[in-house]
Structures are given as C-alpha cells and as structure tokens.
Design brief:
Structural class of chain B: mainly alpha
Radius of gyration of chain A: 23 Å
Number of strands of chain A: 13
Number of strands of chain B: 2
Number of helices of chain B: 12
Largest sheet of chain B: 2 strands, antiparallel
Number of helices of chain A: 14
Strand content of chain B: under 5%
Strand content of chain A: 15-25%
Structural class of chain A: alpha/beta
Oligomer: heterodimer
Helix content of chain A: 40-55%
Shape of chain B: globular
Shape of chain A: globular
Radius of gyration of chain B: 25 Å
Order of helices and strands of chain B: HHEEHHHHHHHHHH
Distance between the termini of chain A: 65 Å
Helix content of chain B: over 70%
Chain lengths: ~350, ~325
C-alpha cells in the first residue's frame, strides 16, 4: 500500500513538472561555425524582415554544428570543414557550399600597422610549432627587411573549440610545412605545441587584441569588424598578397566543384599570382531523413541567401558563389533531398 | 496483547489520506534524489568506459591531448584544476578569515551589517560576469602592472623564479586562481562569521579579562572552538573552486599543457569540458571528456572525505 502511495505522489509531482513544457518553437534552427556567422546573421535578419520567418543560428564551431546535425537537434548546420562522401553517407547528410571565406593572420605589435608585416607559410608554421619565439627572429626579418620589429615574445593564439577555421588553417600549414604535417596534422581540433586558446573567432580576436606580441588566425570579416592588424602573406606562386576581395576572388576562381563528389573541395594554397593562400568554402549540412516539411523552409532560406545575399557577403569580403555553382547546388537538392513519398522536394522552378 | 498504539481520535478519512499522500511525496522526493545521483554516477562511468578501456589508468597520468591521433590524457586538466584551486585557497582563506575576524571582533557596530552585506553580494554575482570582467578588465590590468612586476622581482630567484617565468599574457593560471579566490571569499566569510558568532561571549570576555590580546583570543579561543564550522566553510569554498567553469574558461588560456610557471596558460577539467564537449567528434573524444568529468567527481569526493577525516582527527585530538 505504501509503495502505491509513493508512486502516485511521484506521478502527481512529475505531472506538475512536465506541465510547464513550452510549445514547439517556430522558425528555423541552425548551428555551426563562427566564420560564416557575421554574414549569416545579416542574411537571417533580412530574411526575417522580408518573409517573417526567424532563423536562429548558434555559432558554436564547425565541430559543434556537425555534432548537432548528426544528433538531429537542429534543422541545418554549417561547417568550414567538408565531410567526405563516406562520412556523409554514414550520417545520412547532404552538404553544399554557401559562400567562400578567407582566413587571415592577425598580430598585435607596437608600431606595426595593418598590412605592414609580411609572413609566409613555413614561417607561420614554425611560429605555431614554437620554433620561432621572438618577433625579431631572422626568418621574420628576412621577409620584412624594412620593418622595425620589437624584441617581443611571440604568443600564438589558436581556437580552443572545434573549428573549421582551424581545419583550414592547419590544412594550409600541413601543405607548406612537412614538419607541421608530421607533428600536428590538420583537423577541427589539434594538439597545439604552444600558445593560448580562445573560444570562437571572436575569442581569438579578443586575445590577439589584448596580448602584446600575439599572433592569431581569424576569418576576414572579424578583421573588418574589429579593425585588427592583418598581415600580408606569400602565396603559392611566391607573390606577397594583401588580404582583400580581389585576392579572395582570385583564389575562389580556382574552385571547380564539377569534378568532385558532394562538393568536397579544399581550397587552401591555391595557385595563381593574385590568389590569397588560405581560403575555404563553407558548407551547409542538411539531413536526408528529415520530412519535407522540415527541409523545405531551410532550402527556401538558403536559396534566398544564395540568390539575394551577395551584397552583404561582399561587404564583409566573403566571395559569393558564381551562378554556375548555384545551379549545381540546386540540382543536387533535387537529386538528394527527397520527401517521404520518394519524390524530390525541390523543383528547379522555385 | 492488545495493540497499544495510540488510539487516535476519529479523524476524517480525508485528513488521513492527505497525510499519507504527504508522507508518500516526501519519501518519493528523497528516493528520487538518490536515484538521480545514482543515475549521474552511472552515466559518468558508462560514458567514460571507452576511454578507460583504450587508455587504462594511463588516462589519468598521460599529458597528451591529440584529437587528430585520438590520444587523450587527463593530467594537464587535473593539474590545472588543482593548481588554480590551490591558489584560490591560499589567497582566499587568509582574506576570508581576516574579514570574518574583523566583522566579529574589531568592527564598529554600525559597520558590521554593510560590510557583511557587501561580502555576500560578491556571492550573488554570476560567474560568467566574473569571467567577462576577468577577461576585459582584470587580465589587462595584471598584464600591465602585476605580472611584469612579478617577473622582474621574483623571476631571477633560483627556484621560485620558475613559477613566474614567461611573457606577461594577462591570462593564465595565476589570473584564474585570483578570480577564483574572489569567488570563494564570500562563502568562506559568511560561514566563518556565523560560526564565530556562536562562540560563547563569556569565553572571550574571560580571555580579555586576564589580559589576552585580540590575536591571542582569536587564535586560542575562537578558532579552536569553531574549527568544525571553519573547515566546513573552507570545504564549501574549495568545492566551488574545483568546479567553477565559466569564470575560469575565459581567463585560463585553454592550453592542454603543463607548465611550472603560474603565468602560463593551462586548462582545468571544467574549462576543457565547457570548450570541447559540444563539438567532440568521435567516441573516444567524447568518452575522454566524460572521463574528465568523472575524475572531477572523484576529486571532489576525495576532498570531502579528507575534510571529514581531518575533522574527526581534530575532534579526537581535542578530546571533544
């Protein structure tokens, strides 16, 4: 008799507790990298004004986005690190690029103004390996014969969270430095030999701004928004390039998505005299097994961004995808995203 | 033999039923809490199992943290947790005891309440505010004033100098420890102040009467009488320091490396979990993070057990 009373009391308490659950939320939910966040938030705001559909995007890092879409907690995800065709098949996801981002080294040095410092891939790798420890080291002086470099210790700043920006940055370092490739490798999260970790692109920007002698890597939109001291880089062709829209577009023009499966393309260290060395496509991930009612609003939003979002993207120095790629993306939607009845949910006329 | 239970007056059956439901509800709450605790321990153990199976006990002593090669070790995080908590306690305990002694012994009566309230307000500040304040205000301040001073004066002394080596970054283990000391201060202070006020006035006045100084009264009368409460307050503060997440994550620098220097960046268990859990890809990575959580659980448990043991020994020594 006592046991029954206990259970009854428990059920009553539980019922009281659960009656406070909120109703299902309206609008779209997404999660993913901080690199696309500056432009995605502008797109979402405009889309909301135009169509009264709110888009809630949590910039928790590409690794977080991948984990959340695999766990089915969000409607779409973003990642600067593309998944391989095998990983996509295993997780039942589709991916397609949305915009091209560019990653820039930023520094905090007294007397060095934006664009005054030149760096190249091997030097950057050695800084992050801990082999170059002072700013007036011979390797940096060689690239900057006329700059007045102070005798300050270098404090490398990296991403402490799982980041697609880290993936592309370490991928570039692996391409230009065999020692980096062997000791550290590339991934969204690596074992950094030296330095401090900040959370998100914003965290890295914050630390670089605060620590004298710091160097970090951020997506270029953060350089614009926080007025940071960026450096020039020596690209694959040996030319010293300023990070700007023309350089990013030159690198992006090499992107040929027709020859790869599932749009899997790494764009670091592109050839070309004017190309910026560290660019990447940032990808949107969607689940194949969501019902059409869930996937269709996401496709409408992303299609709107692909077709109407170029101006905001260019204002923040993201490179919008050319029309040919947009058509290719829409074709992939038609073939890969099917509703419960097996028919494609996206028709070209939309 | 007849049942000699109290012959209750004829109650309305409804009152009796309500009483039974009330008893059932309280029983249910108690069992529910224990069940939740068991579930947490169970999920920690199950979740961490893949990591312990792959690395064995070496997981606790290894200092690797390589998501690419999937090698993880808990030692840097454990080291950071212990060091930041130690700094917090070393600085926080003297200050907290000092404030409590001041409030109870030396303070003019009109000042007691304001100071007490202000100290308790420190506990009301959310920890993320401490983190943001630490990152934007405290760390730059330390970077420009205190840390260069420490490096210049103590950096060259043979053994202690190693604790203060390296460039002044502003963030790091020392900063995290200092912010933690501010955060644990109100807990230790309010508990010790309450306990100090339970000391019988006649004891203290007798001591003053035979000519003891304030310090002698505190050291020989007040503290021994209240040692159980004081240690309880310290353990409360230590528990907060060990588990504090947001304030530490902002200022510790998130480096999975062990460095003797206090000015270097490091990591704590809670900071690693806060940074990496939402995006840990792969079973071993996730299991290693849950393993970190279970290690923290064990550390906290051991600290509490040590505190209880210390108390028992003290009581036995004092013969009470």
């Amino acid at each position: 008799m006592k046991g029954k009373t206990i259970l009854l009391a428990g059920a009553l308490t539980a019922a009281l507790g659960f009656s406070a659950l909120p109703a299902a939320a309206e609008g779209l939910s997404g999660a993913g990298g901080t690199a696309i966040y500056p432009v995605l938030s502008k797109w979402a705001a405009q889309y909301d004004t135009a169509n009264h559909i709110a888009v809630n995007y949590q910039a928790i890092g590409s690794g977080g986005g991948i984990a959340q879409i695999k766990a089915k907690t969000v409607d779409f995800a973003n990642s600067d690190k593309p998944l391989t065709p095998d990983e996509l098949a295993q997780a039942n996801l589709v991916q397609f690029p949305q915009v091209i981002i560019s990653i820039t080294p930023v520094v905090n040095l007294d007397g060095v103004k934006p664009g005054e410092l030149n760096l190249d891939g091997p030097t950057l790798a050695n800084i992050y390996l801990g082999k170059i420890t002072d700013w007036d080291a011979a390797e940096i002086k060689k690239l900057n014969p006329s700059a007045k470099l102070p005798h300050t210790k270098i404090s490398p700043v990296y991403r402490s969270d799982g980041s697609g920006t880290t993936f592309n940055f370490t991928n570039y370092l692996s391409k230009v430095s065999p020692e980096w490739k062997q000791k550290v490798g590339d991934d969204t999260s690596v074992s950094w030999p030296v330095g401090v970790g900040g959370k998100g692109n914003a965290g890295v920007a914050q630390y670089v701004n605060q620590i004298k002698g710091a160097i970090g890597y951020v997506e270029y939109a953060y350089v614009i928004e926080n007025k940071m001291t960026y450096t020039k880089m020596v690209n694959h062709a040996g030319k010293t390039i300023e990070p700007e829209m023309a350089a990013f577009q030159a690198a992006a023009s090499n992107a040929d998505f027709t020859k790869v499966k599932n749009f899997y393309l790494i764009l670091t260290d592109q050839p070309g005299d004017k190309s910026w060395p560290i660019t990447a496509a940032t990808y949107m991930l969607m689940r194949k097994d969501y019902p059409a009612a869930k996937n269709m609003p996401v496709l409408k939003f992303l299609d709107w961004c692909l077709k109407n979002g170029q101006k905001q993207a260019e204002a923040l120095a993201y490179v919008p995808l050319p029309d040919s790629v947009v058509k290719q993306i829409e074709q992939s939607w038609a073939t890969e995203l099917k509703g419960e009845d097996g028919k494609p949910i996206w028709t070209a006329s939309k | 033999m007849a049942d000699i239970a109290l012959d209750r007056p004829a109650e309305a059956p409804r009152a009796r039923a309500f009483d039974q439901i009330f008893q059932g509800a309280t029983w249910f709450s108690a069992i529910f809490i224990l069940a939740v605790l068991a579930a947490v321990i169970g999920s920690l153990v199950i979740g961490a199992l893949p990591a312990f199976m792959k690395f064995g006990w070496g997981f606790i002593t290894s200092d690797a943290w390589n998501p690419v090669k999937e090698e993880f070790g808990a030692w840097p995080a454990i080291y950071g947790t212990l060091v930041t908590s130690a700094i917090a306690m070393l600085i926080g305990i003297p200050f907290a005891l000092g404030i409590a002694i001041f409030i109870t012994e030396l303070c003019p009566p009109w000042l007691k309440r304001p100071i007490g309230t202000l100290v308790e307000l420190l506990a009301a500040i959310p920890s993320i505010i401490y983190g943001i304040w630490g990152l934007f205000v405290f760390a730059p301040f330390l970077q420009t004033t205190v840390q260069p001073f420490l490096i210049d004066t103590l950096g060259d002394i043979p053994i202690i100098g190693a604790l203060f080596a390296g460039p002044p970054l502003g963030i790091g283990m020392l900063t995290a420890g200092l912010i933690l000391s501010i955060m644990v201060l109100p807990f230790i202070t309010s508990v010790t102040r309450d306990v100090f006020e339970t000391v019988p006035t006649v004891l203290k006045e007798s001591a003053y009467g035979i000519g003891a100084t304030t310090w002698e009264v505190v050291w020989n009368i007040v503290l021994p009488t209240t040692r159980v409460g004081v240690i309880g307050g310290i353990m409360l503060g230590l528990g907060r320091a060990l588990g504090e997440t947001m304030a530490v994550t902002f200022v510790i620098g998130n480096a999975h490396r062990i460095n003797v220097s206090l000015l270097a960046p490091g990591t704590t268990i809670s900071a690693s979990l806060a940074n990496e859990f939402s995006e840990a890809v792969g079973d071993v990575y996730k299991a290693s993070l849950i393993g970190l959580g279970s290690v923290l659980f064990v550390i906290t448990f051991l600290v509490l057990a040590a505190a209880k043991y210390m108390l028992i020994r003290l009581q036995r020594q004092a013969g009470t």
